[in-house]
Structure formats: C-alpha cells, structure tokens
Amino acid sequence: MRRKPLIAGNWKMYKTKDDALAFIYAVNVEVPDKDVVESVICAPAIFLKDLVKREGENLRIGAQNMHYAEEGAYTGEISAAMLKSYGVDYVIVGHSERRAYFNETDETVNLKLISAVNVDITPIVCVGESLEIREAGTTNQVVKKQIEKAYLNVSAQDALKTVVAYEPIWAIGTGVTATPEQANETIIAIRSVIKKLYNEEVSEQIRILYGGSVNTKNVDSLLSMSDIDGALVGGASLDPNSFLTLVRAAL
Ligand code: PEP
Q1: Which atom in ligand 1 lies closest to the alpha carbon of residue 95?
Q2: CA–CA separation, 18 vs 77, rounded Å?
Q3: Is residue 1 assigned to a domain?
Q4: What is the pLDDT of residue 59?
Q5: Any domain includes 204
Q6: Which residues participate directly in catalysis (predicted)?
Q7: Whose CA is nearest to atom 2 of ligand 1?
Q8: Is the pTM of this model over 0.90?
Q9: In this structure, which residue's CA is closest to atom 6 in ligand 1?
Q10: Is the pLDDT of residue 1 over 90?
Q11: Domain with 71 in it: what CATH number?
C-alpha cells in the first residue's frame, strides 16, 4: 500500500505577520487535495493562531517545537494541549537546530513525541547525523540509536500516529543535498529499525520524510525513491510558488 506523501515547510525564524498571512492567502486555494498529499506549514508560534484561522481545506499548520510537560512552571514554554486548543495539527520534534542550540536531547524528543500523540497532534520526529558521523561510516548506528530512544515506551498504535524526518545535519541549510540514493538508503535502514522495534506493518505504514536542502530542482528525484514519503523543507518553503511546486511534485 502506497503511503500518503507529506510535504512540510519549516519556516524557522523567518517572516513577519504580514508575510505569513500573504503566504497563506497565496497558497490556500492552490494546494492539492489533502487526501492525495498532505501539505503542512510549521510556523513560528506567534503566527499559529492567525494561520490556523485562515488555513484552507487542504493546508494544515504545525508548530516548530513544544514543551513535553502537560503544564507547569515553565516560563516561556508552550504545551501540546495549548497547541491543540488552537487547532495546530503537527509539531516538529528534535530538529537538529534545537538539538544544537536549545539543549534538545533524545530523552526530551521521546517525551515530546509522547505528549504530542496524547493530544492527537502528529509529531514530525527529526533524526540525522553530522558530517563527521557520515564520513566515519557510522550513520546507521547513530540514527538507529536516535530512533530507539525517540520511540521508547511508545506503542505500535501510537508510533503509527507519528512521522519521521531523516535530516542529515550536513545537508540542512547548506545547499548540499544528500543524493536520492544516500537518503533512501538511510531511510530504508530507519524502516528496518522500526520493524525490529514493532513489526512489519508499522515499518511499512509509517511515513519517513527526507529533509536537507530540498528545492524545486531536486525534489522530483528525491520523491521518486522507494522509501522517501515526502520532505521537510526549510528555505524552499518560504516562497509560496516554491512551496506549491514542492507539494505538486508529490502528486
Ligand atoms: C529544515 O529546516 O528542516 C531544513 C531541511 O532546512 P533546509 O531545507 O533549508 O535545508
């Protein structure tokens, strides 16, 4: 059974309110049927309420981070339940920028994944290796550990409510993309880890995206690979026409 493709934009810390609204108005009516391809924009938290209010039939809005606790004395943080109460449907968890600059660990990724699923938000769980690891030839071992830790104490039923994004750190925002073969090979390795953790059904059904300098020129070759189910896209998701081209490539 073919997995439904998903294209998720990660705006990072770009755009002002007017830019964000202009983007939504431009893409809303153009994005393809959500039953054929899922189109998601993961926006800065401050824009989420305005974007969810204006999201069209086929576009969904996601957050870029959340706290793992249900609630509590965590000044400045946002919980999964708060996101849900505003109609947010996805959240990026464990992006390498958050791991590098904001102390995100495999343990907090695991807790966030569980909290998101508990309130029916789909976590997009990011894993990926550094250039040193890739060059040392230990990518599969490192990514295996990240997956095992992220899915600790997560049932098969809940694992199916998540999406994995394989994002080699050396390819994010650098203009250097993993070759389709490299990306597919690592994603196949991730699927085999998931099969060991759960079973064949979960490993065949769970969607695994590739992320790292995806753009309108390389998207077709990446999406043509057997195990790449979509893309998590930073830079090329900022422009409405570019985002629409990426989404249409998944049709
Ligand atoms: C990302 O932010 O997840 C990402 C992959 O960025 P870029 O597409 O700009 O490399």
Answers
A1: 3
A2: 24
A3: no
A4: 98
A5: yes
A6: 95 (electrophile), 167 (proton acceptor)
A7: 234
A8: yes
A9: 234
A10: no
A11: 3.20.20.70
